[in-house]
Every structure is written in structure tokens, then in C-alpha cells.
Amino acid sequence: MKITISQVGQHVEETVTIGAWLYIKRSSGKIQFLQLRDGTGFIQGVMVKKEIDEESWEAAKQITQESSLYVTGIVRQDDRAPSGYELTITKLEVIQVAQDYPISPKEHGTEFLMDHRHLWIRSKRQHAILKIRSEIINAVYRFFDQNGFLKIDPPILTPTSAEGTTNLFHTKYFDEDAFLSQSGQLYMEAAAMALGKVYSFGPTFRAEKSKTRRHLIEFWMIEPEMAFMDHEESLVVQENFVTYIAQQVIENCPLELEVLERDVEKLKNIQAPFPRITYDEAIKLLQEKGHEIKWGDDFGAPDETAIADHFSKPVFITHYPKDIKAFYMKPDPNREDVVLCADLIAPEGYGEIIGGSQRIDDPELMAERFSEHQLSPETYKWYLDLRKYGTVPHSGFGLGLERTVAWITGTDHVRETIPFPRLLNRLYP
User: Fold this and answer.
1) Could you read off the pLDDT of 201-232 as tens digits, one per residue?
2) How many helices (H) and strands (E) does the chain have?
3) Is the pTM of this model over 0.70?
């Protein structure tokens, strides 16, 4: 019976066959220990010389790291093993002996590993990170499906950006100029006016020449938009969403969290509601801590970390100044110089993982904003139409997948949270 490593728990004391790669091998003379991986997990296979045919024994002696093979054996329960199971090998068939595999158990530099990213993702740590990434993606779909959202796919090629084209990638769309999308938000607002509660989940592109551990050139965004929903109601959706993701990872990826040596107790503490602090309060807090920052400045990474260190959960920073936020954010009706928005800052120095706001729904005010920001009403006539034909209060937010994966996995740099990262100096592999 051919199975995967993830299925061994269903076949204890049964003879099975697994297609696998050799991860690590060690020998004690008459016993060979093979650490095997198949993409679904890792398991140790044990070969005892007197219990196996000579051909299989000799083949096992010749195989090298990342050689591919079929192993047949009996699944044994073993509480000492990380997965709880071990394989007593009764037959081994080599598919290919790998020659001179470049990534050995020794230490390698980051650039070397990034050059060999196509192979690096086979390692236990990278496997664990990408497995958790997949679980988070699945949790995103489950959460929105269970809460009455419809998935809508906005275009990746756009005629321009309502937030300016400085950080956009330019291309030609036949005889027109086009840009890779920075965000699907404006299109999602149109979808919300048709379908109520919607979300998108797709790649976005930022041509920022940034080398920080929080930035990628190409990354994935989850962007919900909700009709008939105000700012406060949106915050509740956001904190429930993040809580759900964290708890699903704890429940479904315990082995991966153990491989990463992640402090699970910190993740268990991620439970709604989350604390909230206004921009005014955040500025005062930072000034008391000696940060050189004044009202009207945006927060840098050290500022966000200093604020987050006051809380054991993610924290919302709300009501930013109008002048440092996007044109479409609705002003606070009680205070015209700030907007109804919030950034969600993750604990442990991982920075902003969500940005959201209530959107302007007044057609006259939106027209004023277009004029103030020198945006083309012709290019985005369709967006202005949303306020002209049946405008309603509505809110939305965007969660960056890679930063969220970095935070939940405890990974220092976002380059390890996406299979093939696109960085300022990297388009290979």
C-alpha cells in the first residue's frame, strides 16, 4: 500500500510503501537510520542488516542526501519520535542517487541559500514555515466563507493608481500604459456595492527600493470590503480574523511550531478583543520614551516596536492624521484632522500586519479629495460612480500575508515566508 508520511498514523503495524527523499543518514554498523521526507512530513526509517535483503542494505549504504527512493516497511508507534511514529524498513528501491547536493548540514550564508532557494525549501525549517503559510491561507478562506464573504478577484493590470504611480511597476498594455496592482481595494469597493461582503486574495507589487526585513517587492494581500459597516464594526472583524488564524495554526501545525521552536504560549494569548490606542496617545507614549517624533509624523519600525512592547497582544493604533493617510479614508465626524482608520501592530517587533479604514461615502467630499490630491476624475469615473449611485457607509482593510506568516512563525525576515521571494536585488530563482 503506497501512502504518504502524513498518513502513517492510520497504518500502525501495517506494511506500507512511501516515496521519499533522504534527508539525513547515519549508521551504527549493523543498523542504518534514514531520515526521510516526502513533502508531507518527516519520519525516521530504521534498517537492520539481518532483517533486510542484501541488495536493499547495500543500496542504502550508497544513497546520499536528497537521493530519491521508495521505502517499504512496517509503521511502528514511537513516542520518542517527533511525529510519534517510525518505519521499520523491509525493502528499499533507489530512484536516483543525488550527486554533490549543494546544501549540506553545515552553515551557509544567506545569499548562497537564496541562490539555492529552489533547494533550500526542502529543509526542515523552511518546510515548517511554508506548511504554516499554507495553513494560514486555508484559514483565511475558511474564516471568510464561514462569515458570509464572497471571494472576488480584482485585476492585476491597472490603468493607473489612485494613490500615485511612484512605486508602481510600469508595463505596456498594447498601445496604452499599464501598471501592476499595488492593491485591489478600489475594485473591491465596487464589488462590495454589488455583493455586500467580499474579499480578495492575490499578489500585489510595490516598486519600493527597500531592503528591510519587513518588505518584499511581490507579496500577497487579503483585502476585505464590507458594505453597511462602520469603522468600529470593522475592527471587530479584524481582531476576530487574526484570532482565528493564530488559533488554527496552533491546532493544525503543532509539529511545525515545534520545529521552529516557536513560543506557543504567546500565540495562545492572541485572543480578541485587542487593545486600542489612538495616534495621539501613541505619539505621547513615544515622546515619553525619548523618541524624536512629533504629531503629524508617520511611525517607523522602531516606533511601532516600542508601542507593541507595551502589549502582549496585537494593538490597534487608530485615528491617524488625515494628511499622512490615503485620500479615501473617512474623516472623524468629531474631528476633521484625523480619519477613521487603524493599523494593527503585531507583537514582538513584527510591525504592521493590517491597515484599514472606513471609506468616504459622501460624493461631494470624495470629489474634493480627488481635487486635493490631483487625481484624474476621468480615469476613476467608475470609482466616483460608487458614491453617485446608492452610496452607503462601508469599511475595509488589508492584511499582508508574508508579515503575518513571519510573526506567527517567529521568522526574522519575510524572505523566508514566501516560496520564491522577490527582493530589491533578487529575481532569481
Assistant:
1) 999 999 989 889 999 999 999 999 999 999 99
2) 13, 18
3) yes
The CA distance from 177 to 157, in Å, is 10
The DSSP secondary structure of 60-77, one letter per residue, reads HHH--TT-EEEEEEEEEE
- Bridging pattern class, strands 42-48 and 150-151: unpaired
Helix 381-388 × helix 185-195 angle, to 10°: 30
CB atoms within 10 A of CB 131: 21
Tell me the three cell numbers of residue 44.
525516521
Amino acid at 7: Q
Map residue 251 onto helix, strand or coil: helix
Q: Which of 341, 383, 428, 423 is nearest to 163 (CA)?
A: 383
Distance CA 351, CA 303 (A): 9
**pLDDT digit string, tens, across residues 267-278:** 999 999 999 999
Of 94, 76, 96, the closest CA to residue 86 belongs to 76
Q: Which domains does the chain have, with CATH numbers?
A: 5-96 (2.40.50.140), 117-416 (3.30.930.10)
